[in-house]
Amino acid sequence: MSSKIGAGGVIVGKSKLGVQETDSETPSAGIGKRRAGAKSRVAALAAEIWKYRLSYAFVTPFLLCFIAFIVVPVIAAVALSFTYFNAIERPRFIGWQNFQYLISQDLLFLKYALPNTFKFAVIVGPGGYIAAFLLAWLISQLPGKLQKWFALAMYTPSLTIGIAMSIVWLPMLTGDRIGYLNSILLRLGWIEVPQLWVTDPDYLMNAMIGVTLWSSMGVGFLAMLAGILNVNKDYYEAARIDGMKSRLQEIWYITIPSMKPQMLFGAVMAIVTTFKTGAIGVELSGVNPTPAYSGHLIINHIDDFGFIRFEMGYAAAISVFLLILMYVSNKLSWGLFGSKGDE
Amino acid sequence: MLGSLWRRRGRLNRMDGFQKLLTLLLIVLGAFMLLPIVYIFNHAFKPYHELFVYPPTFLVREPSLQNVNELLAVTSRSTVPMIRYLFNSVFVSGLAVVLVTGVSALCAYPLSKHRFPGAGIVFAAILLTLMFAPEVVQIPRYLVVSELGIMNTYFAHLLPLMAMPIGVFLLKQFMDQVPDSLLEAARIDGASEFFVFWRIAVPVCMPAVATVAILAFQNAWGNVETSALFMLDDEMKSFSFFLSTLTNNLANNVAMQGAAAVAALIMFVPNLIVFVILQGKVIATMAHSGIK
Q1: A27 CB-contact burial (10 Å; exposed 0-12 / middle 13-18 / buried 19+)
Q2: Structural domain spans, chain B
Q3: Does the N-terminal peptide bond of residue A289 adopt cis geometry, omega within 30 degrees of 0?
Q4: Chain A contacts of B128, Cβ < 8 Å?
Q5: Three-class SS of residue A205?
Q6: Residue A230 touches partner B, C-beta closer than 8 Å
Q7: pLDDT along chain B (292 residues), means of 10
Q8: Which residues of A touch B111 (CB under 8 A)?
Q9: Cα–Cα dist B8/A143, whole Å
Q10: Where are the transmembrane segments (chain A) (predicted)?
Q11: What percent of chain A shows pLDDT beyond 90?
Q12: Residue A22 forms contact with B (CB below 8 Å)
């Protein structure tokens, strides 16, 4: 695999080719099969499936649980989005009404939840992703013994989710002059009166972004750290001989291309966790909904309709909308990092 | 801890300038990131008059075991013995870690290395469901569990945990990096496909396996959802659920806060231990091998 350096992304495609070759099915035979009638096409597919029976046996245990507890419920939830459902009576089919209301009349959604989520996601998504990669890289540059402890430190906010997120930040951001941030800024003379960092609608969003960035070293970070450490050290050696000087060049030309699968994983996880964030605004400001809806994200909107107003059908419609939003963001990022092998 | 600090000292001398500067920088940042752990440990030993100081303090001034006693008093009053909750949690979490990692790896291997018909659909489904907000899925999932007739059994704890799409996604990404030549060589030597998977693909992807195990443990140990929704009898509920009920549904939120602080510590420590052990494994395997 000496060609790995410049072409990390192609590995996937290549590997699949490799398997195909071993399948002992020549391309001409495949075309011949396709030309035959529909009946034999079914037979060919059956034969193909039979040939891969071992693969199916491998995936079955996971797939059974996955279908039962995730796929079926998600499909049911999507179906609910076309109904009026208050969690007590039977769902009543109402067609596209939920979606029509959502994108044309739901002012809270259009004025607050949607723009807030956009602002939040545009900064936290890429910001958290880059921060996670950079920290993973910095940790990888340390001697081996220290790595574990720094990985622990960076992962701490994810390890203590909910317990400490707001509690650590509240003393910093408290609105009176006792708050750490206020007292520092006051002493420096940058502000004249204490600012209400978490209760003033003008500041809450920024506080949310800051705190979420702080806690963005999650599973994507762990994967990228492992990916960086996994890069064959010989490549760096070879590149150094070829005259590569700066560490930045190393990152760009060796590290990132050699760990595309992990970069991709990190990107997807960054998108998913960013869009699924919601509780932080309520935790920081201490009120639900947040002051003047300044921290109202799409997830808060779903919670609001799902668990407070008990309009599960409408909450499901918002979830479907959020899914589409994530899917689109995902497509954009896969365009950046994806290789042809992964659909 | 002191010993390892001392060893770090020794290592510091052998680092180059960049590493020294970097270590210093990361120590400052790391100390800040570690604050939640400091808080959890200190909070558990704060006497009541310190628990409610506003703004909250990180360090305890007069440490006491008052909260521990409170928790013990509460648990001795509970109708179901505490050991039963603990057993449920340990049993479910232990089994979940083994099953989740095993099942996820089994699924990720063919997804990455065999191009079987439907692989694309399976992978797309995994990604798409990852993106669905969990809120509205609860009611349908409840119906599935009750239709399957596994309410109030350990299956209802375990099976939903086993459907962890992130694990499959992560393992698949790592298996994509395993060179096919390695697998092919074993196949030519006559190794069965399961052997290739178990003795070659899994060991090479050990970092990912360990990461999935960390996640699986975190999910299982902190899991309150299956206890709240799928378990009818108290004997079947988990330790985490029991601890979460200490402060929920109380008229005022002063009572039991001390016990809750200790409970938070008890919930956190296993996570910490599992993470340190497994992450250590991740880094250790990396240091030795690396995919060539």
Answers
A1: exposed
A2: 2-71, 77-288
A3: yes
A4: 323, 327
A5: helix
A6: yes
A7: 46 66 88 85 84 72 85 80 88 95 95 89 92 86 91 92 93 91 89 89 90 93 88 88 73 68 87 91 69 46
A8: 59
A9: 10
A10: 58-85, 118-138, 150-172, 203-231, 251-275, 312-330
A11: 30
A12: yes
Cβ-count burial of B3 within 10 angstroms (0-12 exposed, 13-18 middle, 19+ buried)? exposed
Residue of B nearest to A67 (CA): B163
Residue A320 has pLDDT above 90, yes or no: yes
- Note whether A306 contacts B136, CB cutoff 8 Å: yes
**Residues A51, B115: contact at Cβ < 8 Å?**
no
Q: What is the torsion angle, in degrees rounded to the nearest 10, for the CA atoms of residue B107, residue B109, residue B113 and residue B117?
A: -10
**Surface-to-core class of residue A330, CB atoms within 10 Å of its CB (0-12 exposed, 13-18 middle, 19+ buried):** buried
Rounded CA separation A223/A139 (Å):
13
The least confident of A94-103, A199-208, B56-65, B83-92 is B56-65
How many whole angstroms separate alpha carbon B55 and alpha carbon B243? 25
Amino acid residing at A139: I
* Domain B77-288: which CATH number of 3.40.50.720, 1.10.1040.10, 3.30.1120.10, 1.10.3720.10: 1.10.3720.10
- The residue written with tokens 């809806």 in the block is A293
Angle, CA B126 vertex, CA B275 and CA A337 arms, to 5°: 80
Beta bridge partners, B38, equal: none
∠ CA A214-A220-A226, nearest 5°, is: 115
**DSSP per residue, A83-123:** EE--SSSPPEE-TTHHHHHHHHT-HIIIIIIHHHHHHHHHH
Which DSSP letter does residue A292 get?
Answer: G
Domains and CATH numbers, chain A: 96-337 (1.10.3720.10)
Identify the residue whose tokens are 């809750």: B260
What's the CA dihedral at B227, B229, B234, B236 to 10 degrees?
-50
Q: pTM of the entire structure?
A: 0.85
How many CB atoms sit inside 10 A of residue B76's CB?
A: 9
Question: Which residue, among B224, B203, B221, B217, has the nearest Cα to B274 in the 3D structure?
Answer: B217
User: Which amino acid makes up residue B134?
Assistant: P
Q: What are phi and psi of A83, to 5 degrees?
A: -130, 165
Which two tokens mark A74? 């998600």
In sequence order, the 6+-apart residues with CB closer than 8 A to the CB of B259 are: B67, B70, B71, B74, B246
| Angle CA B195–B199–B203, to nearest 5 | 150
Which candidate, A297, A225, A237, A235, places its Cα nearest to that of A266?
A: A225
A264 to chain B, any CB pair closer than 8 A? The answer is yes
What residues does A93 pair with on adjacent strands?
A: A83
**Tokens at B150, concatenated:** 């596994």
Helix (H) or strand (E) run with residue B32 in it: helix B17-33
